[in-house]
Amino acid sequence: MSIGILYDRSETDELGIRLTAEELGINLVYIPFRKVAINLDEDGYSIKSKGKNYSKIIEDVSVVLNRAQSKNRRFVAVNVLEALGKNVINPSLVEYICFSKLRTLLHFWKGGIRTPRTVYVPCDSHEPMAGGGEIRNEETIADLIQQELGNVSIVIKPDAGTHGKNVRLAKERTDLLTILGDTEPSIINPVGVLAQKLVQKWFYDLRIIVTKESGNVPYCHPTALARAGFKDFRTNTFLGNMVFGVKLPIQIRSTAVKCGETIGKDSKAWLLAFDAMINAGEDKISDDDYIKAEFKKLQPFFDEVKNVKGNEAKKRNFSSWNKKLEEAFQTYKSQEAYENVKKIIEENTERNRHNILFHEANACPEFWEQTRLAAGINLAVPLLKCAQSIIESD
Ligand SMILES: Nc1ncnc2c1ncn2[C@@H]1O[C@H](COP(=O)(O)OP(=O)(O)OP(=O)(O)O)[C@@H](O)[C@H]1O
Ligand SMILES: [Mg+2]
Predict the structure, then answer these.
(1) Which single residue of 15, 19, 37, 149 has CA 20 to 30 Å from 251?
(2) Residues, Cβ < 5 Å to ion ligand 2
(3) Cα–Cα distance list, 100 to 233, 293, 330 (Å)
(4) Protein residue with least CA distance to atom 16, ligand 1
(5) Which atom number of ligand 1 is nearest to the Cα of residue 158?
(6) pTM here?
(7) Which ligand ends up closest to the CA of 162?
(8) Is the bond leading into 90 cis (omega within 30 degrees of zero)?
(9) d(CA 384, CA 365)
(10) Inter-axis angle of helices 92-99 and 101-110, to 10 degrees?
(11) What's the 3-state SS for the chain?
């Protein structure tokens, strides 16, 4: 039996998984998920592109790494694959929970994991009326949110959003009304409004990797990716923030394992990336100005990393582009300023290890360009190991 990799578009993560599989001597079977016909009839199924029939190859695959890009596509893909009798990383139950931030928060809450204060209002800000016109609900929604959270800074986010898109901060009621007015039911926010109290994190947040192989207990990687910057309250990498590989305190690792168990349930194998924030409040062990100055020193080196990342050649000659990326990253990481900021994050995390709030689980994390190089975790390895563990245990 072999391992499959399904995707619609090949990005560096998928190229990285293929390269890693090659290095490990693992045969990886490609399953396309875009211009193909998935056909079901009384005799069985077939999956064919215009020029190729993939059905036979797929027959021999027992585990599939689901790397379809969007949450929607990934969820459809896992449903199809599981119906065809395949094991999938991640399984549909995991994808289903991770699809929605609210669902994830509900599971965390049930599992006793601390999360940011969250209020969900199942009402849209404007609703069309039968006879034309619309009902405006911003005031009521704002009242409901503030009734719970008070007159504090509030974050509004789309339930199934990614890359920090439309995650917005309301410092006052007028901002809140404007932001609520801009919300619209959509594929990434089907119903209502998800609001959170602004967590008093410092200048960074964390992405923590937990993996579970069949027959083993879940494992939290000892390092995490810290995304850091002062530009915006959103510190995620998509917005161009810098990244640091940081050591995690043991207590945080065991909470992250609990998060994994809460989301992974009884599934044989899974891989998850949790987003977490340290509610450090005023516990700042260093001056903001000092850290900003260190960022400034690092900027040209991080710009060079971004420059290589943006290089068109990456897909044409992946392995030579990859070498360039690794070199640029190494230069960035070897700066004294990198070490200084990293130490501050590690110390702040250690001091506030009991003030960690988990708020999201990502089922298909990007990793090749940041997590691998900053935190030293090539997720392709645990992904492939998870798949192998299922084959071995079956
Ligand atoms: N309640 C909050 N308090 C403070 N900051 C927050 C809060 N929620 C989100 N953020 C910040 O906004 C960023 C984006 O939020 P979130 O992770 O919810 O959005 P996203 O669209 O899933 O982004 P990504 O796909 O990069 O994870 C987080 O990395 C964090 O820095
Ligand atoms: Mg997130």
Answers:
(1) 149
(2) 275, 360
(3) 21, 38, 36
(4) 164
(5) 21
(6) 0.96
(7) 1
(8) yes
(9) 15
(10) 110
(11) CEEEEEECCCCHHHHHHHHHHHHCCCCEEEEECCCCEEEEECCEEEEECCCCECHHHHHCEEEEEECCCCHHHHHHHHHHHHHCCCEEECCHHHHHHHHCHHHHHHHHHHCCCCCCCEEEECCCCEEECCCCCEEECHHHHHHHHHHHHCCCCEEEECCCCCCCCCCEEECCHHHHHHHHHHCCCECCECCCEEEEECCCCCCEEEEEEEEECCCCCCEECCEEEEEECCCCCCCCHHHCCEEEEEECCHHHHHHHHHHHHHHHCCCCCEEEEEEEEECCCCCCCCCHHHHHHHHHHHHHHHHHHHHHHCCHHHCCCHHHHHHHHHHHHHHHHCCHHHHHHHHHHHHHHHHCHHHEEEEEEECCCCCCCCHHHHHCCCCHHHHHHHHHHHHHHC
State the ligand closest to the CA atom of 155.
1
Q: Which two tokens stand for residue 297?
A: 């020193």
- Could you tell me the two tokens for 175? 């901002």
Q: Residue 267 and residue 287: Cα distance in Å, rounded?
A: 45
The angle at the Cα of 177, spanning 174 to 179, to the nearest 5 degrees, equals: 110
For residue 178, the tally of other CB atoms under 10 A from its CB is 13
Of 359, 364, 370, the residue with max ligand 1 atoms within 8 A of its CB, to mutate for a pocket test, comes to: 359
Residues 6+ apart with CB under 8 A from 346: 246, 247
Reported residue count of the chain is: 394
List, in sequence order, every residue forming a beta bridge with 64; answer none if it has no partner. 4, 88
- Note the pLDDT tens digit of each residue in 278-320: 999 989 989 999 999 999 999 999 999 999 999 888 888 999 9
Residues 177-207 pLDDT 10s: 999 999 989 999 999 999 999 999 999 999 9
Surface-to-core class of residue 43, CB atoms within 10 Å of its CB (0-12 exposed, 13-18 middle, 19+ buried): exposed
Ligand 1 binding residues, C-beta < 6 A: 116, 155, 157, 161-165, 167, 196, 198-199, 201, 205, 233-236, 238, 275, 277, 359-360
Query: What is the structure's pLDDT at 348?
Result: 98
Pocket test for ligand 1, best of 152, 154, 167 (most atoms within 8 A of CB): 167
Q: Which atom of ligand 1 is nearest to the CA of 201?
A: 4
